[in-house]
Amino acid sequence: MSFSTIIGQDEAIHLIRKALARNRVPHAYLFTGPEGIGKKLTALTLAKALNCLVTSDDACETCKSCYKINKGCHPDVEIIEAEGQFIKIDQIRELQKQVGYKPFEGRKKVSILNNAERLNLEAANALLKTLEEPPPDTVFILVSSSPGALLPTIVSRCQLIRFSPLGLQRTEQFLVEKGVATGPKAHLLAALSEGRPGKALNMDIDKILSLREQILELMDLMIPDGDQRTDPQHTLPDSGIKVLPGKIEEFTRDRDQTEELLDFLLVFYRDLLLLSEQGDPGFLANQDLISLLERYKTRLSSQKILKICRDIYQTKVNLQHNANLQLALEDLFLKIMKT
Asked: Of 224 and 44, which is predicted with more confidence?
């Protein structure tokens, strides 16, 4: 894949190609931005451009060097991933050993550290020493969605390139062009991916639609009709209390499924808030459910919808800090039912 096929990152690509054209590529880059936005893909494309046998500021995708990098077998290009939870000191020591040699067959040795925020302290300090005295003909590319977790001294020794999410329409267009989905399905995937094409490509639309059906079944339990909610003696519906534990257990079979649920819930309530505030329906994620959303909208005020959105977001944060899945969802759903 050449730079021209990387969508929505024109500014980042311009800076990289400008450095290539002037033969002034820094010894270390830091690519930052959300997951699934094209950072690693761009890093690989830069590695190809640095070693391409045909062009000097892009990847031709036809030469022997580009072919080897695409296959992951180029002797001068290495991708370092976390072993378990962290990138460890032994991995960095091996990296230091390898970059100490001259390029074997390319112009530059390229080391890509994916999810660089996973460097443990020992590994980070070892990498810092290498960045302070970089070997010649070597380029380090650190890829991170959480640059704040990196040592400031490492960040200061890298040229920062920021990657931004795509707009909703551009993401939807991308999915249509790739043949992933069309119509409301493409629109829903684009909204759920939050402008991250890599994430959108990895999402299973059938699974998403099944999850949505399960959530809709819960909505009538968590959001009773208007008359019941305005009753001063309103209590939690008995049907909800009975069904909720089983549903939560179903949702919490794995952490990824729970995160998908929360992402979807957040988008769903954002749709309700948009309608409640009389926003443009064109920005709804669930455009094919607008009549149903209109019904739910009448049961909650904008203030209550906003509170639920905050509760969902806080639950996402809690899970990032290893909160118990079952307890976190039970607490969230009870808050929604009491709102």
From this structure: 44
